[in-house]
Write a structure and sequence with these properties.
Elements: E1 3-7, H1 15-31, E2 35-39, H2 48-51, E3 56-59, H3 70-78, H4 87-94, H5 96-105, E4 113-116, H6 119-129, E5 133-137, E6 147-149, H7 155-163, E7 169-173, E8 177-185, E9 192-193, E10 197-200, H8 208-212, E11 218-220, H9 227-243, E12 249-257, E13 263-269, H10 279-285, H11 291-300
Parallel strand pairs: 1-2, 1-3
Antiparallel strand pairs: 4-7, 5-6, 5-7, 8-9, 8-10, 8-12, 10-11, 12-13
Length: about 300
Amino acid sequence: MGRVAVLFGGRSAEREVSLMSGAGVLEALRRRGVDAHPFDPAERPLDDLRREGFDRAFIALHGRYGEDGTVQGALELLGIPYTGSGVMASAIAMDKVFTKRIWITHGLATPGFAVARSAADVAGAAARFGLPLAVKPSREGSTIGFTKLTSADQAAVAWEIARRHDDEVLCEEFVAGRELTVAILGSGAQARALPIIEIVAPAGNYDYQNKYFRDDTRYVCPAELPAPLAARIAAQALDAYRALNCEGWGRVDVMLRKADAEPFLLEVNTSPGMTGHSLVPMAARAVGMSYEDLCLSILAGASLKIGGAR
């Protein structure tokens, strides 16, 4: 694998989680004999990667300045192969509005939505889609800035919470049902879905704390689903992943509507968490793949997407 930089930390609102992900990946790679080194782009210039002779980069950054195409573009310019999706796929997947627009052109089911640029727009979306309503920043992750709006008179509060993180706010039809996620490894026709995970959070609230810092969220892997439905959801997740031209690995979040067992796509994570609570390692374990093997597999797929292999 050569000399490998594990990029983690960064400047996003998800820095704390990224530090945990990167520490896990770094330790796993070193246990397998990889010459891996920590690299925090918030503390060092990226050009140090070239000056110090790094051959590959494992991106364990989450959110902006790491999962949104910016670091990917810099690595393309530096000529350093990296893990995961390329510049465009990363940028689009980070933007939930553009993601939905592409899925709709591919005939993929996603909850109805509206873009809000004011509290009045949020109130208008609530009138259009009904309550509850999901209100969240378009370009943020880990449910940061998310509000489940249950009363129209709280529209201004929900708007302000989301707007702190992004000037583009997504108002999304709320799908009541089971929360599922599908981890994916590989690219193109070779991409494969790992076993589906169902997330059962306290009071149905899978927020930042419940994702990363509490132990009472329950995960069912594989999710208890009829085989035809599980196959359909996995195929839909793969279609969603390929529609954005994602590569290497990722995770697609899905809501399964309680009323009729119809699946709806929410978003794609192109640099998912790799912490002790994270879902891609959990899905990998379900098919007999250890955390270390998962990290090695992702690293082996590192490449340049624009200029070709170095």
